[in-house]
Amino acid sequence: MISTKRLFEILSNIPDPEIPVINIVEMGIVRDVEYIDNELVVKITPTYSGCPAMKAIEDDIVAELKSKGFENVSVKKIYSPAWSTDWLTNEAKRKLKEYGIAPPEGKAEDEFYRDVIAKPIECPYCDSRETKLTSQFGSTACKSLHYCNSCQQPFEHFKCL
After folding, report:
1. For residue range 1-30, what is the model confidence (pLDDT) as tens digits?
2. Phi, psi values for residue 90, rounded to 5°
3. Residue 81, preceding peptide bond in cis (omega within 30° of 0)
4. In what side-by-side order are the strands of the sheet with 154-158?
5. Better-scored residue on pLDDT, 64 or 138
6. Cβ contacts of residue 133 below 8 Å, gap of 6+?
7. Segments making up each domain of the chain, as ranges
8. By mean pLDDT, which of 33-37, 79-83, 121-125 is the weakest?
9. Domain 4-83, CATH among 3.30.300.130, 3.40.640.10, 3.40.50.300, 3.30.70.990
């Protein structure tokens, strides 16, 4: 048997299929790993119900672990508690910003969808707050679209969920 820490290190080689600059561990998708009757079970939580990337993530987990010599691997989805942007690591938030996606600000319980409309989001390109919401939904339901009046760049914001 290999340590939980080492398994998380291996799983951190798997990029998020929708945001490839961050991995599934930084994203907070991987919740736990455990051996059950000689089977390695990886427990994951979808970022939201119906997330189209979940099948790809499951396949990537199995492929990565099998490439490291694990033969008996399964993936189990855990829906409770629901995934939260609070599970994003600080490193993931930094990488999101560098990639051009404004990371969530604060804690999920502090921000709801109405707050996305009510307050300007910091631009990931120039750090200005002279921004405006252009759409509550971006390329995925967990992101909104914004526009920076200062640098004139459109950008996505990863909503607090």
Report:
1. 789 999 999 999 999 998 999 999 999 999
2. -60, -35
3. yes
4. 101-102, 154-158, 143-148, 131-135
5. 64
6. 116, 117, 121, 144, 145, 146
7. 4-83, 88-158
8. 79-83
9. 3.30.300.130
